[in-house]
Amino acid sequence: MRSVLLVTLFVTATYGKGCTAVPKDKCGKDFDHSCLKCGTKSDYDCEECCPGCTPVDKPPYKYCDCSKGPPPGPPPGNDTWTNYSVGPLAVTAVTGGKDASAYDTAVVMLHGGGGSGADWLYQYDAGWLGNLTGFKYVFPTSAYSSHVWFETFKAPGCGLDDDCAYNKTSIAEAAGWVEALIEHEASLLGGDHKQVYLVGFSEGAQLTGYMQLAQLKYALGGVAVLDGFPLPPLFDWTDGSGASYKGSDMRWMLWHGADDPIFPANFTLTAWDRIFDVLGASSTKVIEHTEPGMTHTLVKPEFEQLARFVRGGT
Q1: 222 and which of 35, 38, 179, 251 could share a cystine (Cβ 3.0–4.6 Å)?
Q2: 138 vs 92, 111, 116, 198, 235, CA distance in Å?
Q3: d(CA 136, CA 185)
Q4: Separation between Cα atoms, residue 202 and residue 199, nearest integer Å
Q5: For the chain, what percent of residues have pLDDT higher than 70?
Q6: Are 144 and 210 in contact, with CB atoms under 8 Å apart?
Q7: Prediction pTM value
Q8: Cα-flanking dihedrals φ and ψ of residue 253, to 5°?
Q9: What is the pLDDT of residues 152-195, one digit of tens each?
């Protein structure tokens, strides 16, 4: 296992771009235009975020989340918004068209750590979700007060692929919430889990990967991991005996930014590749993509690919 120090050195040696401050008139929502003042405590250390952005402390890195917006209100088009709860999860959903029941595919999307379901409104407003006809997009918010999906620990020698960096009890608890939500959405589609997709960004992506391999005992229609490192016990497996499911009918999309300073691309995708090799499930990765120049953020081409993926393509 590698320590935090080794991971930090990996980031510095491989990417080395670090934090780049922008003047206030250049602030924007993307990762590269979110910081007004950079520090020197780590390879990516933002000490002052742009207006409207929230500081996120994920040791050894500090960065800004600019994706938050107001909760969805009246739909800007002809789509239908609903709000409900499943267990402790508050959920906002949007269905294509004026009939909230007129869909045959549900896409559950898990926000990044510290975010909320409203974060996805940015992509909806930008049209990145594409034509919603026949689709319901489901945006839960983590029930933890901090809106993380799980807790992490700050400790020497505990890096991304060390169990000691994670509160595994919190992972299991959140996984139970998300499983209940998946079961709820499947029940509205005749109990067909293949009509449910799970997508996540950052911490949400980490939990997404965990759900399919370590929580669920069936294959979803597909799972999309957007900039997320595997959680324990996935990276500890030496054979396939620990997986909750590893069938060949799984469908995976892995999309990662080449310049991601939070989860370095080569380190992260190598970890995922090893897991799929151990499970004998490498053929289930229908998409594995590294986007040049992309940091720890979300981009339009990623969602264009995602739209094809949830429609059964690549």
Answers
A1: 251
A2: 6, 11, 12, 9, 28
A3: 10
A4: 10
A5: 90
A6: no
A7: 0.81
A8: -125, 120
A9: 998 889 999 999 999 999 999 999 999 999 999 999 999 999 99
